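ok trying this again, last paste got cut off
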Amino acid sequence: MSFHYMPGQFRVPKVPNFTLPDGIWCGADSDSGLFAFDAGYSWGGRIMSRELCYSLSVGGSTLKPVFSSINGYVYWSGSGYVYYTQTYGWVYMSGMFPGYEPLEDYDYKDGETTWTGDSFYTFYSFPQPGGGAATLTPRGSIHDRGEQKEIAAVWPRWKSKRGEFGEYEPVDGAEGTRWLGLPRFRGGSEYFVRSFAKTNGHFTYGRIRHVDGKWVIGEPGSDAGWHEGSEPSREGSVTFKFTKKEGSEARGQDISVSLYDHVKGDEREKAYLGEVAIWR
């Protein structure tokens, strides 16, 4: 539930069927390594993922995206490479570096065609979101004897159940439930929003704070009384008992606190930006 929003103008190579938004939420603490953003209608709108775009699956092997430009596009790396070439468009190839322009030639003699060159595959229709696979066609030295393969787009992710903040449910192989936003609790007519960062090892929740080993609402020892309970939890309600000093005539009611929703916080911190060159 701990995320920083990082606005920016991301300059990345093109990705077929996907455009990276200008700003993303970056996970912190227990959510480190996660990103949350609007992936567009085809991918289910607002999602959470460990990758900034989808992977590709070829023959049961997963190829991960690499945000380095080859002819203007990202490429995918795994058991082989998927990248965009000037000659054949999209290719799948192993044994050579990404960006290599594969070779294909043929010789026609006595009514027979012999194909030579590199062993690679091409495809013209990029796999669509939601499981639509594309066909890989053998080329070069395997032009007339290679088996066709299928390539599919896969993206283990969590999809928002409702709006930007709140619960995200698993999709496409992801597991468990994720949450975006700071939990906001309600007790009567009062709301308690959890802090982003901890102070002395504990979160604060508006007027709810950890003092001398106890979770309290109000000021312990005050003549008007205060409330004591436990840390608010997403799993259920917490009761804060009205407490007063011995002999005090102050009166008050207990407060039952439970999760209401998740919201964007208003805390800020410094972010350091830089620029690096990619060498290949």
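PB: full thing came through this time. The chain has no helices and 24 strands.
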